[in-house]
UniProtKB/TrEMBL annotation:
It holds the Pfam family ABC_tran. The keyword Nucleotide-binding applies. InterPro entries: AAA+_ATPase, ABC_transporter-like_ATP-bd, ABC_transporter-like_CS, ABC_transporter_ATP-binding, P-loop_NTPase. This is ABC transporter ATP-binding protein.
Length: 318
């Protein structure tokens, strides 16, 4: 990748006590993209973010941001990176406005009330500017976290599970906020458990498990490459064997011959074409069916397969 905005090489982290949370992570992030890091609990997502944002001291490897070594130019580079953590740990007694304004100052920027006002308005927090953070609802507290991270106008923004535990409406609202930030030129890396979130938002997806990146790809390419079509064809009468005419297709008999199961395709429409041909072949052979149930695999299916190690990583491992 040419001039990645973030370039992580061979990053390792073994916590005192011996647990290896990151086992050699290589990851390059493009300027201007939304990158979703997907992984099960304990995969190392928060540790990875923490290593870039200075909350976790890596055991090994290098991190370059904006083309420079973070190990050497820590303060100046960190000021250009924003972090929305999972939870607010401080500032509970501060009013919203002061807390957000203070965050800007932490990165050495001069006060800019107009900018803070614009941020609070964009997050529908302006009405709450004088309210103590502890008195806000959970969703509003999350917005405050975003406002604090935006306060120093970072070029690279990490969001650690931005929508965990928020309702559907607020989640959609936050997705909109994140998209708007990207439109303004911010590069965004988010971690999530919600596949829907990655599917909806991300340009590229990285899948992490047990401290290793299993795969990184354009979301669409990943779905195309690993996507599958599954069709269940209910037969009018059970069959003892797969009919000869279907020999060329990835089909099998299940449920004691009462259903034909097709599993194949390439996530780009081939599966549906195959299924149409299979049904035509059945009709030509005089085999009646009563129902067809077609399911296209989603990013979720792909993710579950990958994380559980079911899907062969053939050709796909990054
Ligand atoms: N301070 C710490 N000391 C020791 N072990 C830790 C520490 N922080 C995290 N770990 C361990 O490192 C591993 C990775 O944790 P991490 O929080 O990075 O995962 P995650 O992918 O963010 O998980 P989740 O989705 O649950 O937030 C886990 O096994 C965790 O228990």
């Amino acid at each position: 990748m040419l001039d990645p905005i973030l370039d992580i090489r061979g990053l390792t982290k073994t916590y005192p006590g011996g647990l290896t949370a990151l086992g050699g992570v290589d990851l390059q992030i493009r300027k201007g993209e939304i990158f979703a890091l997907l992984g099960p609990n304990g995969a190392g997502k928060t540790t990875l973010i923490g290593a870039v944002c200075g909350l976790v001291r890596p055991t090994g490897g290098t991190i370059h941001a904006f083309g420079e070594d973070m190990g050497k130019h820590w303060r100046t580079l960190r000021a250009r990176i924003g972090l929305v953590p999972q939870e607010l740990s401080t500032d509970m007694f501060e009013p919203v406005w002061r807390s957000v304004s203070h965050s800007r100052g932490l990165f050495g920027l001069p006060p800019d009330p107009a900018r803070i006002e614009a941020i609070l308005k964009s997050l529908s927090l302006w009405d709450k500017r004088n309210v103590q953070i502890r008195a806000l609802s959970g969703g509003m507290k999350r917005r405050v976290l975003i406002a604090k991270a935006m306060s120093h106008d970072p070029e690279l923004l990490f969001l650690d599970e931005p929508t965990a535990g928020v309702d559907v409406e607020l989640r959609r609202d936050m997705w909109k906020q994140i998209s708007e930030m990207r439109e303004r030129g911010t590069t965004i890396i988010l971690t999530t458990h919600y596949i829907e979130e990655a599917e909806e938002m991300a340009d590229r997806v990285g899948i992490i498990r047990a401290g290793k990146i299993l795969m990184v790809d354009e979301k669409d390419a990943m779905m195309k490459r690993l996507g599958r079509t599954e069709a269940l064809i209910s037969l009018a009468a059970p069959l003892a064997a797969v009919p000869e005419v279907l020999a060329a297709y990835p089909v099998a008999l299940i449920e004691e011959g009462r259903k034909l199961c097709y599993r194949g395709g390439d996530g780009a429409g081939q599966g549906k074409t195959d299924v149409a041909e299979v049904t035509k072949a059945l009709t030509r052979a005089g085999i009646d069916y009563t129902a067809i149930d077609i399911h296209e695999s989603s990013l979720e299916d792909i993710f579950v397969d990958l994380v559980e190690g079911r899907e062969a990583l053939a050709g796909g491992a990054a």
